[in-house]
Amino acid sequence: MFRFRRVAALTATVVAGALALSGCAITQAAEESDGEGELVIGLAVANQQADFFNQIRQSVEAHADELGDVRVVIADAKGDADTQVSQIQDFITQDVDAIIYIPAGATAATVPVRNAKDAGIPVVTVDRNPDGEPGDTFIATDSVAAAEELGAWVGEQTDGEGNIGIIQGQIGTTPEIDRDEGFTQGISEFPGLVEVARQASDQWAQDEGFDIATDMLQAHPDITVFFGRADALALGAASAARTAGRDDILIVGFDGDVAGLEAVRDGTLDATVTQPTQAMGALALDSAIELANGEELPAEQLQPGVLTTADNVEPFIETHP
Fold first, then answer.
1. How far is CA 77 from CA 16, 104, 156, 281, in A?
2. 27 lies in which domain range?
């Protein structure tokens, strides 16, 4: 099919760009160094328990090891926005040269960027860009374009007919807003595809996906499609569908987490969008260094996401882009 030929070409490009970015396991913070000219970069991670954020962290650390003369200090907010505000204040007190910031949520997300800018410290925002207080440069997957392609694929697979249950991520966050916009555009050409339910999660977690999907199936037993805005949410929906004896439901996710990719391979999920997390982590560190050195960068650096099905999933399982 034309769509899969196009996806295969992009897949090869993304994988080739990521081959050099795999690295060993990392520690909570880089070891102290007294080398002259060393840059210190603060990395504020939303939640290291999430595979997506953990892959960003791994890539930043691995790339720092490759570059040398860069020390990365890591803070894990464990999903708590207030904790993250304090952690970034600690970075400011330490007078780091730049901050890579993955907001833990929409709540209080603008505060760390504002405080860092007031202190003259540049900020690279990743995946989520605080509304009204954006980072000096924003790195993310082009979720609008990727979700639009995913929506069009759902329309093709269902012959344009069905009832959709949407399991949202955190309301107000950049990924939720963009994936909603793109998917809505993607299914707009299929008037027979109707959204019958939507509900937001709080932590993008699998147990939330299960609970939300279970409630949706009880209220709307005619659901034929689930879109979990993250792979974890989609995996929860898949468990709920199996529990309800509904093997006929088309289930799609977003992220390209390891568990999500394996679920696509095994048929538990029908499709996902693979984000180039390893490449994004390296780009975030390069951008932080450039900003620390006084260089200017584009306001946004959006990366392509790849529609991923059983036909093209294996390369991503072998080497995540």
1. 32, 7, 40, 18
2. 18-141+276-303
- Distance (Å, rounded) from C-alpha 78 to C-alpha 56? 15
Count the domains in the chain: 2
At residue 36, the pLDDT reads: 57
Q: Model confidence at 199, in pLDDT bands (50, 70, 90)?
A: very high
Average pLDDT of the chain is 90
In the sheet where 70-76 sits, what is the strand order?
70-76, 39-45, 98-101, 123-126, 137-141, 300-303
Q: Please check whether residues 134 and 280 belong to one and the same domain.
A: yes
Share of the chain above pLDDT 90, in %: 86
Calpha distance 87→43 (Å, rounded)? 10
Summarised one tens digit per residue, pLDDT across range 239-270 is 999 999 999 999 999 999 999 999 999 999 99
Q: How far apart are CA 252 and CA 235, in angstroms?
A: 9
Residue 24 has pLDDT above 50, yes or no: no
> Which pLDDT value is given to residue 108?
86
Q: In whole angstroms, give the CA distance from residue 105 to residue 169.
A: 10
Kindly state whether residues 35 and 133 are assigned to the same domain. yes
Q: First and final CA of the chain: distance in angstroms?
A: 23
Average pLDDT in the 75-85 region? 95
